[in-house]
Structures are given as C-alpha cells and as structure tokens.
Amino acid sequence: MNKSRTNTEKFTSSKHEKKQTTKGCPFCSNPGAAVSTVTVKHLVKQNIQIISEINNFRICMNPKCDIVYYCRIPEISFVKNQIRVPIWYKLDADPKYACYCSQVTEQQVMDAVRNHGAKTVNDINRITGAMEVSNCIQNNPLGICCHKIIQSCIDKANQNNI
Ligand SMILES: [Zn+2]
To answer: Ligand 1 centroid to 64 CA: how many Å?
Structure first.
C-alpha cells in the first residue's frame, strides 16, 4: 500500500467532497467532541505509536455508532471493541460507568439517590466512593471530570422517581 499517494489524492479531491467535514465522525458524520491525545493513548487497547503524534482526536457522540475515536486521518479511527472500557453513552455499554476512575456505575448512583437519600454529587461520592481516585484525563473516555456524568445520573434517577 502506498499511503503517501492516497493522502495526496485525499487532499486534491477534498474540494469535490464537501460533505466530508473534518469534525464529523467518518462513519456516521455526527459532530464529535474534542478529546486529548493522552486520553486516546491510554484507552486504546493496542499500543500504537502514531497516536502520540496526532493532536486533533475527537470522540463520536452518537450512541448508535461503533466509532469511538477518530481524527483527520481516516485510517486512524477506533471502534468500541478497541477501547479498554465501555463508552457509557453508547447503546450497549455494559456496565455504564458514571465514574471511571473509581469504577462506580450509573446503577450505583441511581441506587444511592433512591435508597440512600443522595441529592448532590458530594453525597454520591460519600456513599459510593466515586471520585475518590481522580485521574479523569486517563480514565474517562472523554478525558473530562466524571462530575457531570454523575450529576446527569442523579437527574435521571430523580426524574424517574416522579
Ligand atoms: Zn460515529
């Protein structure tokens, strides 16, 4: 395979492919979220050297799409089974982690709200041990703090209670 030739062709033909935006997922074209190279490198199962050299990774936010990480190079993308952890918002994620660092699941958060009176993220942390260890940039697939995910689990549990 002659990769450099393929790349040149990609650039020259890009004018004709306006649908292909650099920010959308190459598979489902949903807009993704920017994610740190540190996160990608840590969560992709294989040790792939080129990952370190890419600084514009994005993560596909479409729950139905198999693609997780992608970048401007179409050959460099990773699907769910190439990632060490289930991506909580993808359809068949099991378990659904709310806090990746301390491996607390969405179910545990909901249980703390329903059965142990938890109302805030701090309550959840106290009851479940969530966020005890905090290294979100390496453990959370989005590379962001688990705080927001825990909050949305609390909201979900409260909505279901009504
Ligand atoms: Zn996608």
So the answer is: 8
Residue 69 lies in a domain: yes
> Band of the pLDDT at 162, cuts 50, 70, 90?
low
| Contacts with 18 (C-beta within 8 Å, 6 or more apart), sequence order | none
In a domain, 75, yes or no: yes
Contact 56, 72 (CB under 8 A): yes
CA of 83 to the centre of ligand 1 (A): 15
Residues 149, 99: contact at Cβ < 8 Å? yes
Please list the residues that pair with 78 across neighbouring strands.
Answer: 69
Residue 30 is which amino acid? Answer: N
* Ligand 1 center to 31 CA (angstroms): 8
pTM recorded for the entire structure: 0.79
Looking at the fold, whether 26 and 72 belong to one and the same domain comes out as yes
Give tens-digit pLDDT for 24-37: 999 999 989 999 99
Q: Residue 161's pLDDT is what?
A: 64
Residue 38 lies in a domain: yes
Is 114 among the domain residues?
yes
Q: How far is the CA of 56 from the centre of ligand 1 (A)?
A: 16
Q: Using one digit for the tens of pLDDT, what is the confidence trace for 105-139?
A: 999 999 999 999 999 999 999 999 998 877 888 89
**What is the domain extent for residue 137?**
97-161
What residues have a C-beta under 5 A from ligand 1, the ion? Answer: 25, 27-28, 60, 62, 65, 67
Split into its structural domains, the chain has a count of: 2
